[in-house]
């Protein structure tokens, strides 16, 4: 398997979660109530899995390695677009969180929440399509077999670290302060 195989496999899970949004939106339209627990769980999934884990491998490993390659201009253009789309997705999630927090405080942000959910539901399938069809396979041609094998190892190490990063952040939130802690064999 090439590194893009892992990224595309992750896309399938992201698509499944984002695929739940139309039903959530329909439910909100019928009841004028927001399932805040679902949204909070979906936001955690997007932030931790789709953004930090998945986009993290793209940005911190694949795209950084591609920066040093003599890429065709159209491939470099797509890579810049993808990076900007990741920033756009983070902003959409941030706005959804803010609207949900105001809803929990008693403000009527139902339409705003629905609009943000619709934006995410439209954004992710197109973003994933662009990566899967227009970029991932093409980007692999810039690497030797040895470089691809090394990237696979880096992806695996990146994933191994994620659970520790996630739950260190949870501990810090519960404690109300940053903590110095890292598991054996890991720095940070």
From TrEMBL:
Transmembrane parts of this sequence: none
UniProt-recorded name of the protein: Hemerythrin-like domain-containing protein
InterPro entries named in the record: Hemerythrin-like (IPR012312)
The organism of origin for this protein: anaerobic digester metagenome
One annotated Gene Ontology cellular component of this protein: plasma membrane
CDD domains, per database record: Hr-like (cd12108)
Occurrences of domain Hemerythrin-like (ranges): 6-136
